[in-house]
């Protein structure tokens, strides 16, 4: 009976850890402001968050998470601790196709046989 209880406890703990890992908030390091970086990233306080934003303004967007270690005060250990929280999306909305002008010819449909 004790072993069954231990198995149930281990299973519950495993599920709890898995759900907490999935619930980690993500941050796009190419678009986030300093306050968001400070709030989401582990081991990054206000001054390091400002340094990340300043680095990005000077050097352009980050191409990889590892490039974050180029920021003064951020090491590879901090990058590894935050790997599941870091996103690198461009952060821009895709360009929309221009609307066709009124009276423009519609494409012809293929004739059915």
What report would you give on this structure?
- The chain has 113 residues and is mainly alpha-helical.
- The chain is built from four helices and two strands, in the order αβαααβ.
- It has helices at 2-22, 34-40, 46-59, 76-81; strands at 27-28, 86-87.
- A two-stranded parallel sheet has the order 1-2.
- Helix 2 (34-40) packs across helix 3 (46-59).
- The longest helix is centred in the first third of the chain and has 21 residues, at 2-22.
- It is elongated, with a radius of gyration of 24 Å.
Secondary-structure map:
Blueprint (H helix, E strand, L loop, with lengths): L1 H21 L4 E2 L5 H7 L5 H14 L16 H6 L4 E2 L26
Parallel strand pairs: 1-2
Helix pairs in contact: 2-3
Note poorly predicted spans: 92-98
Topology order in helix (H) and strand (E) letters: HEHHHE
Note the overall shape: elongated
Give a quick account of the main beta sheet: strands, pairing sense, barrel closure.
Answer: 2 strands, parallel
Q: Give the N-terminus to C-terminus distance in angstroms.
A: 74 Å
Strand sequence of the main sheet, in spatial order? 1-2
What would the average pLDDT be, to the nearest integer? 81
Tally of individual helices: 4
User: What's the Cα radius of gyration?
Assistant: 24 Å
Measured by DSSP, the beta-strand proportion falls in: under 5%
The total count of strands amounts to 2
Class derived from helix and strand content: mainly alpha
**Overall helicity:** 40-55%
